Amino acid sequence: MPISVQHIRHATSIISINGKRLLIDPMLSEAGKFSPVPFTRNYHRNPLTSLTVSLHIFEDVDAILLTHRHFDHWDTKSISILNKETLVFCSPRDQSFVQKAGFKKIIAINDYYEWEGIQMRRIEGPHAPGITGKILGT
């Protein structure tokens, strides 16, 4: 079965694989809603660009993959409009937050998880070196 990736903006994408649609890091707010990312050289408000797709495409996803919960990967608009019955994959440290946001089906991936023939492996990754990396976290 073919794999397709639809990049929406920033880290937000929809991956179609094994007949499933997986929404990655939803950031669905209007352009300019949030302040610039602190401690970076980018002084533009976020998101930097408008959505080029209708919000309706997010109604038909089978699962959400949250890599981490910084505002530019999981924003308040996403939390408010996405179906709370949608399965969410996240890291163990984000599980409580996702649950408090009202999502009912949550799988925290410690290391490796296979779902519907889709293999997922969680890895840690710093955002930047030095003090900026310590402030932004993983």
* H/E series: EEEEHEHEEEH
The major beta sheet can be summarized as: 6 strands, mixed
CATH class designation = Alpha Beta
Mean pLDDT: 88
Q: Write down the CATH topology.
A: Metallo-beta-lactamase, Chain A
> Biggest sheet, strands in spatial order?
1-2-3-4-5-6
Distance between the termini: 33 Å
DSSP helical segment count: 3
Shape designation:
globular
| Helical fraction | 10-25%
The number of domains is: 1
What would you report as the Rg, rounded to the nearest angstrom?
A: 15 Å
Residues in β-strands, percent: 25-35%
Quickly give the structural class.
Answer: alpha/beta
Total E-strand runs: 8
Please tell me the CATH architecture by its name: 4-Layer Sandwich
Unreliable stretches: none
Tell me the name of the CATH homologous superfamily.
Ribonuclease Z/Hydroxyacylglutathione hydrolase-like
